[in-house]
Predict the structure of DUF6630 domain-containing protein.
Amino acid sequence: MDELLELLLTPLDEPHCQAVRQCWQRRSPEDAEYSSELDRLAAALQDYPEVYPPEWWLNPVLSRWWLCLRVDWKAVDEVEWQVQAISHTLGLREPPFVSQVAYQPGVCVPMVLIEAAAWLRLRGYELLAIDTGGDEYLAFPVRLSLLREAFQAAHTLSLRVHLI
């Protein structure tokens, strides 16, 4: 999992990489909160603040990085802000991601994920989704130039992955 983590950290500057690595190392698989290495990975790549003012995910003091999109199967409203947080971390601030479909009747999470993936693709990233076996969507932004390595790392870990 370390190899995959290092690939996912490439957009971050070194101080933030070190902070994520420390989060990764502090979270042990024995913690009840983290039932798997994927849970640990996702937790290390999401820097939650202690307080939640409006648009906290765009404030680098409150949330220093966000490199993991983790959404419940029915939480359509969670995709947009997480993609905004990811794009903020990646330095992709203009124009911000704003879903054109998320608030339309009958929309489901995969529709918004496809829209977000297309937006990121235009900016040099793919959303690499990992099948968790649960009812959530888990995806990570990967630079196009590192996609082959990311697939190889996932294959080595026996993870079922695909692009969104």
Summary: The helical segments are 2-8, 14-26, 37-44, 76-90, 109-121, 147-156. Strands lie at 69-72, 125-130, 136-143, 161-163. Residues 16 and 64 are 7 Å apart (CA to CA).
